[in-house]
Write a structure and sequence with these properties.
Helix content is 40%, strand content 25%. The protein has 151 residues and is of the alpha/beta class.
Length: 151
């Protein structure tokens, strides 16, 4: 999700004028807050907000002709669907594109699956690790950060 838009803003600021960020957020209120910050930073033209279910939004991007056109996908949403977002991101990414996933160590609880969320992230980590479609590195920074390069 977008929440306040900090990650979307960082990506948009790093892009050339022709670059585009698609920011997916389930809650309209959060998207509106983030839009306000994009306007303040004068980058509204670089950020397209898609409000609603992320799976449906990603599928729509694919159906609308964006298959294999993205350079980067950042996943930090409902943990139960990390694997789904990973698969859909691969459809959007060009070869060599990067997927970044946040919270993949989940306070160290992924090893023992101490909670439902930890178990969901553990399952997603297994999907990432076993995929032959990406090269994967997991970083022990913050709450865990996984980077993957599409082959």
């Amino acid at each position: 999700g977008v929440y306040t838009g900090a990650s979307a803003m960082t990506a948009a600021l790093a892009l050339p004028d022709t670059g585009q960020v698609y920011a997916l957020e389930k809650i309209k209120k959060h998207a509106n807050v983030a839009k306000k910050y994009m306007q303040m930073a004068d980058i509204s033209d670089k950020v397209t907000f898609l409000v609603g279910d992320a799976k449906i939004s990603l599928e729509s991007l694919i159906e609308d002709g964006h298959r294999h056109t993205f350079d980067f996908s950042y996943i930090d949403a409902d943990k139960a669907n990390y694997g789904v977002y990973f698969d859909l991101s691969l459809e959007l990414l060009r070869a060599g594109g990067i997927i970044a996933v946040d919270n993949t160590l989940f306070r160290g609880k992924v090893l023992t699956a101490e909670s439902k969320t930890a178990g969901e992230i553990h399952n997603a980590n297994q999907i990432f690790k076993s995929s032959r479609r990406v090269e994967t590195v997991q970083l022990n920074v913050g709450d865990g950060y996984t980077l993957m390069r599409k082959l």
